[in-house]
């Protein structure tokens, strides 16, 4: 098995088929900490829930639990970074992006500090907990902060890669993961991962799905179904880095497929879809375009798989939406009567 | 630099107050009330206590200082000039286009500034992080945070106070510039803080109270804080007067923020000379 080389360290790869993204994150962090003594951990009473405790168990002198106090969590992380350490700050996505947002912006991003924020239970992955614990706004919030890099890995394997690669970014990084029960997309760790570089996971010529997080596996499954049942050739792009976004891979898809659908576990306002839309609009080129996600609403309660089906973020929901967009054509004509 | 004597510190504090008036004129306006109330505290710290090297502002082992009441930048930044971080000419562009110096200090631009501040309730959490970091790095530098009293309405301070005592941060010193005023009026009218010392004590801190304008008392208190053998973080509640040193500002809520015309600036400097 090839070993990771992004930062020159190596670590044993954990089995994402039996381990959640959170568990892998804690373990990768622990491995990295063995050779990088600047790594410290901070959490707000979620040592166990976010699995940063896996690192803390081996490095108790470098792990700080500040209690249920997220403003302090990110202020403390900033202070640790100011004296030369590399803090991983871990809490639920909703508390990172909302409760501690000003500290993330002003203490961490404004001072451009190398704090690595791991937001777990992102999106509607903690469906049964309700809207207080869902987070479908974090991508919008985090990407609007200058200096912040925003990553939404597809699964545990990719989370491990992101946790390691984020050490190469001199400033703040936000990594959003789910609750950990999502099936993995990658089969193993043998794939290239570069922050800011989208991954073509399936080629196609009729339409392109641009997605991140849980959307990657679901979109690939939808693409298979569409190919087999409808004869539609679907390209799937995994944009794990929302900011900075890979414009090149998006525009290539616009040129070659002329239909773009974005899929994300986030409000369709402010997330991946809007980032992709901006790239398309700024290019001056046109295409048929649809954003799939939470349609500016708070999600209902339910187990995640039921919610993904309800919000059409599972493979059959995505396939239905693709069928609908196939009837939409990009119009290169001057006739605006059907648009305006 | 050798540590200044009490008399030298008093003279230096006058020099700082005068420069606060000048800088307010150059800047066009400023939060002079809170800057003047903390002038003696800043002078004592920068000319007697903080182990720093203006020629090497990023020295790893230096003591850290966070101006949590970031709006007093118009006192802090002139103090950094007096301590030798940059020439006085740079102050003349304060607040103006592309100046490194705005109302609230930006540590990416202000030499000698350890943390960007301005939004209240942010300094103490960052100070807790720096003090914890010193322990991880096995360094013995101190972290000092200067807070405003009105700022102590912010809940984040109490999160940080809990964490500081939980982690027994004896290398952390919080100083509160207790001038008694916030923008809308006296602290006890707008949102009462008393019994203030009891609050810090209840959160597990060793608390000292002193006259924030009596240089001898201030230095004696800082000596105790520096030698901290109490096993707890130390808070100093320094009783001060908003606008201290300027007759028409002292103890007046209107001294929070404003501008001087030339006659007022002259009067202010005359008052300071007569202190």
Chain-wise SSE layout:
The complex is a heterodimer of chains A (340) and B (275).
Chain A: H1 21-35, E1 39-43, H2 53-58, E2 63-65, H3 70-82, E3 86-92, H4 93-99, H5 101-109, E4 116-120, H6 138-143, E5 149-151, H7 156-165, E6 173-176, E7 199-202, E8 207-211, H8 215-230, E9 234-238, E10 241-243, H9 247-257, E11 259-267, H10 272-283, E12 288-294, H11 304-310, H12 315-326
Parallel strand pairs in A: 1-2, 1-3, 3-4, 4-6, 5-6, 8-9, 8-11, 11-12
Antiparallel strand pairs in A: 5-10, 7-9
Chain B: H1 6-27, H2 32-37, H3 39-49, E1 64-67, H4 73-82, H5 123-136, E2 143-148, H6 155-166, E3 172-178, E4 181-182, E5 185-186, H7 187-190, H8 196-202, E6 206-211, H9 215-226, E7 234-239, H10 262-273
Parallel strand pairs in B: 1-2, 2-3, 3-7, 6-7
Antiparallel strand pairs in B: 4-5
Describe this structure in words.
The complex is a heterodimer of chains A (340) and B (275). Chain A is α/β, with parallel strands linked by helices and 340 residues long. Chain A folds into 2 domains: 21-176, Thiamin diphosphate (ThDP)-binding fold, Pyr/PP domains (Rossmann fold, 3-Layer(aba) Sandwich); 199-326, Rossmann fold (3-Layer(aba) Sandwich), CATH 3.40.50.920. Chain A contains 12 helices and 12 strands. Chain A has helices at residues 21-35, 53-58, 70-82, 93-99, 101-109, 138-143, 156-165, 215-230, 247-257, 272-283, 304-310, 315-326, and strands at residues 39-43, 63-65, 86-92, 116-120, 149-151, 173-176, 199-202, 207-211, 234-238, 241-243, 259-267, 288-294. In chain A, the strands form 2 sheets. Chain A has a 7-stranded mixed beta sheet with strand order 2-1-3-4-6-5-10, with helices on both faces. In chain A, 58% of the residues are buried. Mean pLDDT of chain A is 91; it is low at 1-16. Chain B has 275 residues and is of the alpha/beta class. Chain B has a single domain (6-273), classed as Rossmann fold (3-Layer(aba) Sandwich). Chain B is built from 10 helices and 7 strands. Chain B has a 5-stranded parallel beta sheet with strand order 1-2-3-7-6, sandwiched between helices. In chain B, strands 4-5 form a two-stranded antiparallel sheet. In chain B, helix 1 packs across helix 4 (73-82) and helix 3 packs across helix 9 (215-226). The chains are: A alpha/beta (340), B alpha/beta (275).
